[in-house]
Amino acid sequence: MLTSSSIGAIGGILIMPKFMQDYGIDVKEKDILSENIVSTLQAGCFVASLLAGPFSDKYGRRWSLIISAIITCVGIALQAAPTLSLPILYVGRLVAGFGVGAASMLTPLYVSECAPRAIRGALTGCYQLFIVNGVMLSFWVNYATQYHWEDRNVYLIPLSLQAVPAICMIVGMLWCPESPRWTAKMDDWERTTYILSKLTNLPEDHEYIDHELYGMAEQLEIERRLVGDATTWILLKEMWLIRGNRNRALISIGLMVCQQMTGVNAINYYAPQMFQALGMNSTESSLFATGIYGVVKVIPPFGYVALVCIFLFAAFFQFGWGPCCWIYVSEIPSARLRAMNVAQAAATQWLFNFVVARTVPTMMKNMGYAGYGTYFLFGSFCASMFFFAYFLIPETKGMSLEKMDELFGITDMLRVMQDMEHRRPYSHRSTAEYELKEEDKWQRLSG
């Protein structure tokens, strides 16, 4: 919800007459200023999502999330400060973008690394569920303040309430453990065992804990044999020069491009303006329609057949391209590349999010009557995504994170290297042939 509160509130605030009056926004300049104000957040998100990966690899996922929430609070404080200054508002949006962008990359990463495989998809999908809940609540807050206040509180309250999810994240993460896969990567196996025991509510000597530890150790050993101790530059080369890793990176980037080209954030940012273009001319009626859009995004679409297509799109989006993209990009990378892969995917998402935020008002103004050409453009993108998903995305349901290397052919490469070292012809053999003996495994985990 930290991400969605910043996304959902601004669209309704920009059309409030009191906001436009206080900030001296001319009706003729409204579209271009709306694009600038909205897209400043995405610019900060793009930069932060790239930097958050290396930072979280060094300092851990937990503290990185706490710091990102603190930065978001600072940005929101600047936005809500009653300065009536557009430059301060821009700076606040940019700073908040740094925190939001980092959190958008770190949250699905942290959840996927902590969740058991049986419920990993569901828990990572909850990330998208909370996004749409946050957007919905932001829409209704805008609608409520428009009715109950006439002074500057009408927009200061929605701006200030953006900080509530960030504050909740700071408090909540203080009670959460570090990612067990990050501690394993740091070679802290005692702490990893303790965290897994707490997350699963199982004793430390349980068979499931033993199996998870062995899977982590096996994957980390494979990665060390492939590359060894690596710098960021070496990791980038590993990601883009090894075919299996390159395929995963390209799939992750492609998914995020497709997610934004559905046009979902065009509606999230500019729903009031879109509803006004469709004939709802008053601020209250456009904000009311925006609030209904938020509800439909959360509730399954059964019974909403009679609603307009924009509401149906909002509902169906939450079954696929909303949650599944984040689930997929956070679970397919190998352990040493996971943060970097998710960071690149999140940066791509925010880059195309920026493109959407920066262009949609102009598109609505110039692409046909009432901007109808905009809907046809995004609809064409949606139709083409069927072929991308059908032909290029392998199924990962029920697979552990440590088995993704086998799915994308990395373990085959290791077998080739091992066969070359022993000067034997390469043959397809099961991974079990290379498994360590039980006593060797525990010696490595403890040493």
Automatic annotation (TrEMBL):
One of its GO terms (cellular component) is membrane. It is a multi-pass membrane protein. The keyword Transmembrane helix applies. Its main location: membrane. GO terms for molecular function: carbohydrate:proton symporter activity. Keywords: Membrane, Transmembrane, Transmembrane helix, Transport. Residues 1-397 form the Major facilitator superfamily (MFS) profile domain. The chain crosses the membrane at residues 63-82, 88-111, 123-143, 155-176, 249-271, 302-329, 372-393. It comes from the Eukaryota. It holds the Pfam family Sugar_tr. Belongs to the major facilitator superfamily. Sugar transporter (TC 2.A.1.1) family. This is Major facilitator superfamily (MFS) profile domain-containing protein. It comes from Neoarthrinium moseri. The lineage of its organism: Eukaryota, Fungi, Dikarya, Ascomycota, Pezizomycotina.
